[in-house]
Amino acid sequence: MRQKTALITGASRGLGRDMAINLAKQGINIIFSYHSNKSKANEVVREIEALGQTATAFQFNANYYNGGQDFINEATQYLQNKCNDSNFDFLINNAGTGTYNLVEDTSEVQFDEMMNVHLKSVYFLTQAALPYINEGGRIINISSGLARFSLPGMSAYAMMKGGVEVFTRYLAKELGSRKITANVVAPGAIATDFAGDSNKDKEKSALISSVTALGRVGQAEDIGGVVAFLCSEKAGWINGQRIEVSGGMLV
Question: Model pTM greater than 0.90?
Fold first, then answer.
């Protein structure tokens, strides 16, 4: 049986790392990108190899959207050399960063960074990847609970995530003839180092817990299993959907 391969952007830490580990536990080989910390990326490679799967990492700065083509070129060339087949099965667009500014304080530079990282790079990296995704493959785009509910200071970030959700529905429509599904996973507040560790702050954590039905802040481990499920055979009829994974935040 042919082993499948997943490409994940931003998997050297946090949510992306947990996605990679969960997919590897399902017998899937991993190619992922990292922003700048190669040592952390190498740690994830070793973790995946310890699970019996192959893994490799390439650098990709999502703020430079055209770098997505370079990442896809490196990934597909690696697959061609290793497997004599440049195609892969799953694309997970996860790489991201945050900015915290009220609308009145948001600069054009900050806005453009959010657009490049969360919208433009996702669009054009996916475009570059489409010729290499096997029939019956999966695309999973990571959005945010902030595309549904609004918290002050996150407008530029949330706008781009809203755009990704619209993009995902179009992918689902346009790729149906290839039996490729496209879905959104939208985490709620997660205690990672995203946005300067803000969700780890004791006061903010208490506030989030108070408006979340399950009474706590999310952890990276709450997300990876959902992504792995969407890449499984059991999720083959889920398409064009937004799955929020927030513990019931602001329901």
Answer: yes
